[in-house]
Amino acid sequence: MSAESRAAADDRARLLEQMLRIRRLEEKCAELYSAGKIRGFLHLYIGEEAVAVGVMDCLRTQDAVVATYREHGHALARGISAESILAEMYGKQQGVSRGRGGSMHLFDASTRFYGGNAIVGGGLPIAVGLALADSMQKRECVTACFFGEGAVAEGEFHESLNLAALWKLPVLFCCENNLYAMGTALARSHSQTDLCLKAASYAIPAWPVDGMDVLAVRDAARRALLAVRAGGGPAFLELRTYRFRAHSMFDPELYREKAEVELWKQRDPIAQLRAALVEEGRLGDADWEALEAAVAGELAGAVAFAEAAEFEPLEDLLRFVTSEPGAREGAPR
């Protein structure tokens, strides 16, 4: 095997590991939720891992990321630790948002990860604002904004894309089209189901991508980011994917047939990439077992961290909520 071939195989194995980390984290979250360790709402990313991993692999450390309430996978792929993610979902102060945000509001300024947003479409204007700030400050950054196809029906989508196009802002709009906005099929809420046409109507370059293929996602993200970084304004990717689990842990999932879910599972992004590496003789059983063991060890450590972490003291519950008298004296107005 040539050095170039080995490097390519190692690269794909790295992407496989990232997707597996997300899958196993989400499965662990479902287990912990059922055990009453995680409370509130929980939206799992199982099936959609190729989207987060493929796009994040193309971003730079100075770039910003805005995600949705289904953002555990984005956070992990961005470099936020499993420990701080799980501690957050446990409601512990060692969590990435000090235990105040929970599953839907992961936030980490050190990695420029700005949510986690529980409002459908709510991240779109935030992404435009971040890109505008970076542009005005002459910072060479891109903001990657993830949202579901349900957000395309919201007014924020149209306002945000219009302004981003008018001002040629460096935003990569990543629409995760998993076909169901909560429990509503795409064709029942959109008269035009080709979402790229909606973005193109604002003179934004847009194209569909197989969101179940991590290599296709990464190639598309690279192509889009080259144009955005060159000053061409925003770009739009319709990442056609599918969630294997219900919308949330509260969802009885009565709106789609089990046969449809099983059909999509045949295109599992993890299974597809693993099979390709096995067929090429670049991933053996021992390699896979070692990878599974490494991920399991990481998650065991993360669970132990979350269990041992502390809840915020009662006297600190109003911290960051109200300000002390005179706290802003001398502060710029």
Summarize the structure.
The chain is of the alpha/beta class and 333 residues long. The protein is 46% helix and 9% strand.
Describe this structure in words.
Helix 1 packs across helix 3, helix 1 runs antiparallel to helix 11 and helix 1 packs across helix 12. The protein is an alpha/beta fold and 333 residues long. The model has no long low-confidence stretch (mean pLDDT 94). The protein has twelve helices and seven strands. The strands form two sheets. Strands 1-2-3-7-6 form a five-stranded parallel sheet, with helices on both faces. A two-stranded antiparallel ribbon has the order 4-5. It has one domain: Thiamin diphosphate (ThDP)-binding fold, Pyr/PP domains (Rossmann fold, 3-Layer(aba) Sandwich), CATH 3.40.50.
- Architecture per CATH nomenclature, i.e. the level-2 architecture: 3-Layer(aba) Sandwich
- Helix residue percentage: 40-55%
Q: Trace the largest sheet across and list its strands.
A: 1-2-3-7-6
Main sheet, how many strands, which sense, barrel?
5 strands, parallel
Oligomer: single chain
Number of helices: 12
Total number of beta strands: 7
| Count of distinct structural domains | 1
Radius of gyration: 20 Å
Tell me the overall shape. globular
Low-confidence stretches: none
Task: Write the H/E string, N to C.
Answer: HHEHHHEHEEEHHEHEHHH
The CATH topology comes to Rossmann fold
Kindly estimate the percentage of residues that lie in beta strands according to DSSP.
5-15%
